[in-house]
Amino acid sequence: MTPSGGTDRHRLLATMHEVIKAVRLLKQDRPPTCTGVPVGTVGVLSEIRARETTGCHAKELAAGNALDPSTISRAVAALVRAGLVVRSADPADGRASTLHLTDQGRNVLDAAQAHYQARFAAALHDWSPEEINAFTASLQRFARDLIDQHTHAPELEAAR
C-alpha cells in the first residue's frame, strides 16, 4: 500500500460517514403527506410497488433490502396499520400472503418520491449531466462491489 493509499481510504471512510448522515437526514425530512409513514419505510413501499404484478412476499422484501425478516415484519405491520399496504392470500400458496399498496399507499409513495427527487435536484443543481452520470456509475459500482464482497465473504474466508 502506498502512503497515500491509507489517507485515501481514510478520506473515503470519512466521506461514507457523511453520506450515511445525509441519507439519515433525508429520511427524516419528509413531506407533510408522509407524516403517517414510519421513517425508513419508503424504500419498502417502493419495493412492494415494483413487485406488485407478481405479488410481493415479506421474505423477498427482507432479502431485497438486506434486512432481517423480523425487521421487515415490523415495518410491514406498521404500513398495514397506517392503511398503506394490504395483505392478501397468495393464489399459488394459500399459507402465504402477498403485499400490495393501497391507493393511499400509492399516493403517499408518489408524494415521497417527488419530494426526494426534488431534494436530489436541489442538491445537484450545479452539477453537469456528465458529473451526475459519473457519480451514478461510480456509486453503482461501489455498491455492487460491496454487496459482492459481502456475498462472497464466506467463500473468501474458506479459501484462506
Automatic annotation (TrEMBL):
Organism per entry: Actinoplanes teichomyceticus
Protein name from the UniProt record: MarR family protein
GO molecular function, one term: DNA binding
HTH marR-type domain mapped to chain residues: 9-144
Record has Transport as a keyword: no
InterPro entries xrefs: HTH_MarR-typ, MarR/SlyA-like, Tscrpt_reg_MarR-type_CS, WH-like_DNA-bd_sf, WH_DNA-bd_sf
PROSITE patterns: HTH_MARR_1, HTH_MARR_2
GO biological process, alphabetically ordered: response to stress
Keywords recorded for this protein, A-Z: DNA-binding, Transcription, Transcription regulation
Superkingdom of the organism of origin: Bacteria
Keyword Transcription: yes
Cited Pfam families: MarR_2 (PF12802)
